Amino acid sequence: MVHSLVVGIAGGSASGKTTITTRLRTAVEQSGRTVDVLASDPYMYHDVDRGPTFVSPTTGEVTFDCNRPESVDWLAFLRDLGTRTSDVAAPDVLLVEGLMILHVAAVRERLDLRLFVELDADERALRRLLRDMKEPRGLREPEVIANYYRESARIGHALYIEPSRQYADIIVRGDAPPDRVQPLLLAMIDRLLGEHSAREPST
């Protein structure tokens, strides 16, 4: 049975993970390989009854904290990761994207290639502000977005996300020109696919 090559793409909120994942997916497809994406965001609990919370110093309200590892249903994520990579229709490459995928050991150990997307904190904060004001995320007021960044996102990044860069095989800038990053990543994937295929038992 052929198993997918699993490429993990981690990094802070608004660092450029999704953009790099999307571009890399297109590049892999254009190289003639099959590729799919598994993101951790859909596995997030999104409510105060099931996920971690904190009391906002600004409002005094109990708020869902999406910047802690316990905010994601990792058991379900790992189950689907196993299915997606070993199914008869498994793609050649599975791109796994998420804030904490290098922090969580059970996920990290499943990755054949580990990427960390870095970007300066002020740029991430600005990107997050602009993004959340445009998207229907429930955080459209600048003051609300800024408070959540200070009280949750910044802290979670320092505690869990930034330290996980030590596990990365390669660190890329979230604002790097695509024509500099994509060829390098595609070459690494091609090399690993060759090694991956050589290790697969013949049927």
Automatic annotation (TrEMBL):
GO molecular function, one term: ATP binding
InterPro entries: P-loop_NTPase, PRK/URK
Domain Phosphoribulokinase/uridine kinase: residue ranges: 88-173
Organism domain of life: Bacteria
SUPFAM superfamilies noted in UniProt: P-loop containing nucleoside triphosphate hydrolases
Protein name listed in UniProt: Phosphoribulokinase/uridine kinase domain-containing protein
Species this protein is from: Nonomuraea turkmeniaca
